[in-house]
Amino acid sequence: xxxxxxxxxxxxxxxxxxxxxxxxxxxxxxxxxxxxxxxxxxxxxxxxxxxxxxxxxxxxxxxxxxxxxxxxxxxxxxxxxxxxxxxxxxxxxxxxxxxxxxxxxxxxxxxxxxxxxxxxxxxxxxxxxxxxxxxxxxxxxxxxxxxxxxxxxxxxxxxxxxxxxxxxxxxxxxxxxxxxxxxxxxxxxxxxxxxxxxxxxxxxxxxxxxxxxxxxxxxxxxxxxxxxxxxxxxxxxxxxx
Length: 241
Description:
The protein is of the alpha+beta class. Among the domains are: 4-84, Phosphatidylinositol 3-kinase Catalytic Subunit, Chain A, domain 1 (Ubiquitin-like (UB roll)); 145-226, CAP Gly-rich-like domain (SH3 type barrels, Roll), CATH 2.30.30. It has helices spanning 25-36, 105-110, 115-122, 134-148, and strands spanning 4-9, 14-19, 43-49, 53-56, 77-82, 156-159, 162-173, 185-190, 200-201, 204-205, 216-219, 224-226. The strands form 3 sheets. A 5-stranded mixed β-sheet has the order 2-1-5-3-4, with helices on one face. The longest helix is centred in the middle third of the chain and has 15 residues, at 134-148.
């Protein structure tokens, strides 16, 4: 009898294999171990066909029961299940414990056929003498964000998407008093005293008068949403007071 192509499917593999109907179930399981990694004693095999659904491939005497006892159809699926507890199964997808070769940076830098060598030759990225520095790129990105969001002093806004943090843009620009804070900052006078300051930072005043009420906040442009955000009226929906 001619071999029959079947699709062997397991938790960690899927492959087409030609099955000889004269094999015993024991022979089949031994051959499937090399495909699935599941020992014969832990295998439970299901033959899946469109007409008959799932058929267990098993017998009381698997050494003498041949596969001719089952209706093998070309390209039917042979599902191989692992009966072992999950903790006892090898994890073939976890490569964290596999030793990997990592080329030292000094050795990689000496190679002439690497991506790094190509970038150097073409003067791309950080090898471009005219490319802006990382700091310059960050400043330019903040400036572009200000333009794209149409952020200007005097406009109404909302900070961080929070309706309780509505207010008016009071300042757009550098704030030298903020450590490592190069690039544009947006100073907002919040309607409610839920800010961080009164319009000043470390003694430098950017708007308003000194106050114990913290209506002021400085944020990056991406946190500011310009729009029609009138002051919240907490009593607007009350019928009586």
